[in-house]
Design a protein that fits this description.
By secondary structure, this protein is of the alpha/beta class. The longest helix has 21 residues, at about 615-635. Pathway: Lipid metabolism; fatty acid beta-oxidation. InterPro entries: 3-OHacyl-CoA_DH_NAD-bd, 3HC_DH_C, 6-PGluconate_DH-like_C_sf, ClpP/crotonase-like_dom_sf, Enoyl-CoA_hydra/iso, FA_oxidation_alpha_subunit, NAD(P)-bd_dom_sf.
């Protein structure tokens, strides 16, 4: 056996209690996972934690209890392996042993002749959920905040039995959703009700008396008064499901995420292989993937999202922030209405929208009410909360309603003169210390505030659409923005549960600037004569969430051209204006029809006679990204390359396996080729 240890490990202790439970004549062994910290530092398993669990199982078995149950500390069951120790593994043999160690310990629960139960009282992810799957029975709290097998998003596979146990419990289609689709869809979590309906848990209970009722239910199962029935898994359709899933993976990722293909192969193995055979292949896959650049990038991205995003670099002290007791929203269109709902729901303060006429205002308020009703219908909001939020959102055509607002945000037409006029009118109405926020996606915050009596209170507050889904909030400091206004903006952003990044006032800021440079390079290749299909598929090896034409269609050619105009005015050499993009904006044609390129679009274009190959297009795009990101950093638009990656992950949905983008540019040599240096130190998000 290869000895492994994680010097950085915060050991999760497995604390055994022998207790009496009515309905059984012997003691019950209850093991509680607890690392000694509150819920902000969840339980994880490294070698030390696995050893502690094994010792607790030894003691539990020796007591010959009526049953063995495992639960977690308050709000947390276990969120899986201790990822901080993974980069410390020195060789393939150690990685292989880590997989085998987890399998050996967890298998003791699966193979036990004494009934075993998992009482999933809180967050259960990765190896934590796999631990529960090894138990014979599972109860689940409806208050569990996060349930998932997220390993594929990081560049790994569930390596402690998940790929073998889950498909045989809930079927290959549902297993592929949990193991592959959800991690690759912004790391989507299962709700407790979903998990129970899938069959991951045998019983869903309310959190208030979860442990007591779980123990009573387990006693009933052991005593024979309760029978647990599980539907038979359809094995006839297994191969067909995997064939379809593989086709979807190839279409979406084009082989760019090795962990996704390995996970799908392992789900296939689970159909007929013995558990020992399947888990041995899991060990091998885990060991192979641990020494991959994709995993290092995934761990880097995970650290950005979990740590850096929660402590924005450069943000002023929150002591400077003012309390916000009322919010004003200028505009009542779709974006403004989404903002009104978000502010009311998260801040729980009055929110008032205004617009040019009563029809627009009424439509905006109606949108908010309809979204609240949808949330209630889907069980995401209770009736009492819905009534309160509904009452908080009002509308008016008279902007004097903003007189007592502490925070006013505009979401009007993206034209500098229009926005300046809005602020000039509002400055006469609002209090002198009210913070004025603009949701501009590309215009100068400094210029917007230039003619105001108090320009220091204007701040950029750039959301990403859809507002309720994308977590990024770029907070832009104008040249005269005060610490108080900035601190208030960050405090509000935190209350809105957004991940905030401090950005210097610069054209199109960060995410949009990088995306527009990306699209501009594609557009210039098309303008030169590259066939649309070649240009559109050239970036497939990166495994981005959508191809360029789909992204352009989502953004809208008109908006893309408008933002390009802003960037062209500032950087004409790097952002040329495309007559073809303007033609697409004017024509308002769908770029794609049933996921295929619209022939009318091809006919509309006027192109040159210097087409590029797919490889040339891809390198042209990567070179452009490297140049633009280096310019952003040299100009101090954000503090470090990590902030660019955070913006691309959270604002554009760029994948963890790229680490956002700069680790990929580094490991392909593009950074040094274009700019003469790397963005990140060697080994930060790659093996070398």
């Amino acid at each position: 056996m290869t000895d492994i240890s994680f010097p950085t490990e915060v050991v999760t202790k497995s604390l055994l209690r022998l207790i009496r439970v009515p309905g059984v004549d012997r003691q019950v062994a209850l093991i509680t996972l607890d690392n000694g910290f509150d819920h902000k530092k969840p339980n994880t398993f490294g070698p030390g934690g696995l050893a502690s669990l094994s010792e607790a199982i030894d003691a539990a078995l020796a007591a010959e209890p009526a049953f063995i149950a495992i639960t977690g500390k308050p709000y947390v069951f276990c969120v899986g392996a201790d990822l901080t120790g993974v980069p410390l593994l020195e060789n393939h043999a150690q990685a292989l042993e880590l997989g085998r160690l987890g399998h050996r310990v967890f298998a003791r629960l699966r193979d036990s002749t004494i009934p075993t139960f998992a009482f999933i009282n809180g967050a259960a992810m990765g190896g934590g959920l796999e631990l529960a799957l090894h138990c014979h029975y599972r109860t689940l709290s409806s208050g569990a905040a996060a349930l998932a097998l997220p390993e594929v998003s990081l560049g790994l596979v569930p390596g402690w039995g998940g790929t073998q146990l889950l498909p045989n419990l809930i079927g290959p289609a549902n297993a592929a959703t949990v193991i592959i689709q959800n991690p690759l869809t912004q790391n989507r979590m299962l709700k407790p009700k979903q998990a129970a309906e899938m069959g991951i848990a045998d019983l869903l209970l309310e959190p208030a008396d979860f442990l007591e009722r779980s123990l009573a239910w387990a006693a009933g199962v052991v005593g024979g008064s309760i029978t647990v029935e599980r539907p038979e898994v359809d094995r006839d359709s297994w191969d067909g499901v995997l064939y379809f899933a593989k086709a979807m993976l190839d279409k979406r990722l084009h082989g760019a995420v090795p962990s996704a293909n390995r996970a799908l192969e392992l789900i296939g193995v689970a159909k007929g292989a013995s558990f020992a055979e399947g888990t041995a292949l899991e060990d091998q896959a885990l060991a192979d993937l641990i020494f991959s650049d994709e995993l290092r990038s995934g761990l880097y991205a995970f650290d950005l999202v979990q740590r850096r995003a929660k402590k924005p670099v450069g943000a002023p002290s929150p002591v400077h922030a003012k309390d916000v007791t009322k919010v004003g929203v200028v505009g009542a269109g779709l974006m403004a209405s989404q903002l009104a709902l978000l502010f009311a729901r998260r801040l729980q303060v009055p929110v008032v929208m205004t617009d040019l006429d009563s029809d627009r205002v009424e439509k905006g308020v109606a949108y908010v009410h309809a979204e609240i009703d949808k949330a209630v219908g889907k069980g995401r909001m209770d009736a009492g909360t819905a009534a309160k939020v509904r009452a908080l959102v009002t509308g008016s055509v008279d902007r004097s309603v903003f007189a007592d607002a502490d925070f006013v945000i505009e979401a009007v037409f993206e034209e500098l003169s229009v926005k300046k006029q809005v602020w000039a009118e509002l400055e006469k109405i609002v209090s002198p210390d009210a913070v004025l926020a603009t949701n501009t996606s590309s215009l100068s915050v400094t210029e917007m505030a230039a003619d105001l009596e108090h320009p220091e209170r204007v701040v950029g507050f750039h959301f990403f659409n859809p507002v309720a889904v994308l977590p990024l909030l770029e907070i832009i400091r104008g040249e005269q923005t005060s610490d108080a206004a900035l601190a208030t903006a960050f405090a509000v952003g935190k209350q809105l549960r957004k991940s905030c990044v401090l950005v210097k006032d610069a054209p199109a800021f960060v995410a949009n600037r990088v995306l527009v440079r990306f699209l501009s390079e594609i557009q210039s290749a098309i303008d030169a004569g590259t066939p649309l299909a070649v240009a559109d598929s050239a970036i497939d090896p990166l495994g981005l969430p959508m191809r360029p034409l789909a992204l352009l269609q989502l953004v809208g050619p008109a908006i893309a051209y408008h933002v390009t105009e802003t960037l062209h005015a500032a950087f004409p050499d790097r952002f040329p204006l495309s007559a073809n993009l303007k033609a697409l904006a004017d024509a308002r044609l769908p770029l794609l029809v049933d996921d295929e390129i619209n022939p009318e679009v091809t006919a509309l274009l006027t192109v040159g006679d210097a087409p590029l190959s797919a490889d040339q297009v891809r390198q042209k795009v990567l070179d452009g990204l490297a140049q633009e990101i280096r310019t952003l950093l040299d100009d101090g638009v954000v503090a470090e390359a990590q902030d660019v990656d955070l913006c691309m992950i959270l604002g554009a949905g760029w994948p963890f396996h790229l680490g956002g983008i700069t680790p990929y540019l580094d490991r392909t040599g593009t950074s040094e080729s274009v700019t003469g240096r790397r963005f990140l130190p060697k080994g930060t998000a790659s093996l070398a």
